[in-house]
Design a protein that fits this description.
This protein is an all-beta fold. Helix content is 0%, strand content 52%. The chain is built from no helices and eleven strands. The strands form two sheets. Strands 2, 4, 5, 6, 9, 10 and 11 form a seven-stranded mixed beta sheet that branches. The protein has a four-stranded antiparallel beta sheet with strand order 1-3-8-7, with no helix packed on it. Strand 9 and strand 10 form a beta hairpin. The termini are far apart. 30% of the residues are buried.
């Protein structure tokens, strides 16, 4: 099982980013896939999940969208209307058991 995130970077408040999580060793359509984030000095928190449906943390609902492309075996997190408090390392996870290395998202002017 391998998960590789990409797409992070520096963006201004109000901007957008799309994170990707390329999976190998299993098929993403068969498992619950999740995005977490961890800001400096804070605990890791669940941001979004996808299985039969989707679920979001209250702080990102309406701004973030999780999706998957079964043909590419990849999970995405589209992040719009970004705020400074969205700054964190974002991690892709399979059911909270397997993790990627994380990708840094920094929202700053």
């Amino acid at each position: 099982v391998q998960l590789v995130e990409s797409g992070g970077g520096l963006v201004q408040p109000g901007g957008s980013l799309r994170l990707s999580c390329a999976a190998s060793g299993f098929t993403v359509r068969s498992y619950a896939m999740r995005w977490y984030r961890q800001a400096p000095g804070k605990e890791r928190e669940l941001v979004a999940a996808i299985s039969d449906g989707t679920n979001y943390a209250g702080s990102v609902k309406g701004r973030f969208t999780i999706s998957r492309d079964n043909a590419k075996n990849t999970v995405y997190l589209q992040m719009n209307s970004l705020k400074s408090e969205d700054t964190a390392v974002y991690y892709c996870s399979r059911s909270g058991q397997y993790w990627g290395q994380g990708t840094q998202v920094t929202v700053s002017s």
